[in-house]
Amino acid sequence: MQVMPDYRGGSIVNLMSSIVHALGGEEPLYAPLAALPPAELASRNVVLLVVDGLGYEYLQSRKPEGALARRLRARITSVFPSTTASAVTTFLTGTAPQQHGLTGWFMYFAELGGVMAILPYRPRHGGSAPRLPVGTLLEHVPVFDRLDARAHMVAPARIAQSDFNLAHRGRAALEAFRTLDEMFQAIERIVRVASGRTYVYAYWPELDRLAHECGVGSREVGEHLDAIDTAFDAFLGRIAGSDTTVVVTADHGFVDAAPEEAIELAAHPALARTLLLPPCGEQRAAYCYVRARQERAFADYVARFADRVELHEAEALVAAGVFGLGAPHPRLHERVGDYVLIMKQNAVIKAWLSGEPQFEHIGVHGSTSPEEMYVPLIVAQV
Fold first, then answer.
1. One digit per residue, pLDDT tens: the chain, 382 residues?
2. How far apart are CA 215 and CA 150, in angstroms?
3. Could you please report the per-residue DSSP string of 266-314?
4. How many alpha carbons lie under 13 Å from residue 8 in its C-beta half-sphere?
5. Which residues of 78-101 are buried (b: 16+ CB within 10 A; e: fewer)?
6. Residue 234 is inside which H or E element, if any?
């Protein structure tokens, strides 16, 4: 079963529209979230906590009676691709990839003449960030600057001052943390002293890291979810009476990759010869830039993997609203290549540059399975 984003009222971009509308921001591009109308966000403080990698399906199967699940309001979708680079940018801009133009971990930027790993903001082949600041390159308006409220960004210390984070901070006050307890303590301090409408965006990355390294079905990920659940329950108790609405969601969920289903581009030189670039995007949603007059050879070769791959023309996906609704980012078309490979089941496609470190992720995401695409909407009013 493949699940496409529900941008008409059931995705994380619609959640952001509810928040922007409730906090007096300019009229959002997208409709508010049907499961959380703006009127329900009338409290003095609104906290959005994004737990990277916490899929709806996983939460329901692993901890259905916990503090998070007891406050589960709805199942909503991520964006496409279901990956951090695209979804977190939606949280930070209030728009879908159709508008913000970030389409995955590896992106081809014609204006830079190469492929970038966008979150660490470095060329894929290594080296330092380009001289062009990421904020200038992306030209995003941070969602914090659209709100009639005091805004705060609570971020992990290791990325709090990153080029990408600072480019999306806008006028939000920034507070860094190192541990789960420190994150909840930082949010608590903010809502306790708030004297007017206040918005807090907080991001927790550790569940995602563990799922990549150990697999979403691992003991390590399960135990970490237990820790998050316990800390969340204690946090709600400490801020009781603060007139705060706490919303918890995620950027995507996970599946565990099946090594026997992996497609290694190096093992298929005839396919590699049809490409101008290594596949961009994600191992579960890859953008292919095909050489002129090689389209038929490319499509015929990919057909060998029909049990593992859906082949789409990139223009057709844009036109169908898979990346979002409305007018696209002026460079969206060049950032999604000629064709998109959407991986089925537990397959991935791997392509490495010469000399590039070859990492092995057990947990993966980016495609359209229910496990990756559905995320929880958790709402607590205290």
1. 799 999 999 999 999 999 999 999 888 899 999 999 999 999 999 999 999 999 999 999 999 999 999 999 999 999 999 999 999 999 999 999 999 999 999 999 999 999 999 999 999 887 777 888 899 999 999 999 999 999 999 999 999 999 999 999 999 999 999 999 999 999 999 999 988 999 999 999 999 999 999 999 999 999 999 999 999 999 999 999 999 999 999 999 999 999 999 999 999 999 999 999 999 999 999 999 999 999 999 999 999 999 999 999 999 999 999 999 999 999 999 999 999 999 999 999 999 988 887 878 999 999 999 999 999 999 999 9
2. 38
3. GG-HHHHTTBSS--EE-SSEEEE-BPTT-HHHHHHHHGGGTTTEEEEEH
4. 3
5. bbbbbbbbbbbbbbbbbbbbbbbb
6. helix 219-238
CB contact burial 194-224 (16+ within 10 A = b; e otherwise): beebbbbbbbbbbbbebbbebbbbbeebeeb
Residue-by-residue DSSP string for 132-194 = S-HHHHH----GGGG-SSEEEEEEEHHHHTSHHHHHTTTT-EEEEESSHHHHHHHHHHHHHH-
Task: Give the strand pairing for 349-350 and 263-264.
Answer: parallel
* Residues 6 or more apart in contact with residue 353 via CB below 8 angstroms: 124, 125, 278
Is residue 252 within 8 A of residue 78, CB to CB? The reply is: yes
Distance, in Å, from the CA atom of 348 to the CA atom of 83, rounded to the nearest integer, reads 14
Backbone dihedral region for residue 344 (phi beyond 0: left; psi -120 to 50: alpha; all else: beta) = beta
139: left (phi over 0), alpha (psi -120 to 50) or beta: left
Determine if the pTM surpasses 0.85.
yes
Q: Which two tokens stand for residue 221?
A: 């990920």
**Residue at 251: amino acid letter:** D
Residues 262 and 237: their CA atoms lie apart, in Å, by 46
Taken in order of first residue, the domains within the chain and their CATH numbers are 12-256+368-381 (3.40.720.10), 259-364 (3.30.1360.180)
> In degrees rounded to 5, what are phi and psi of residue 346?
-120, 30
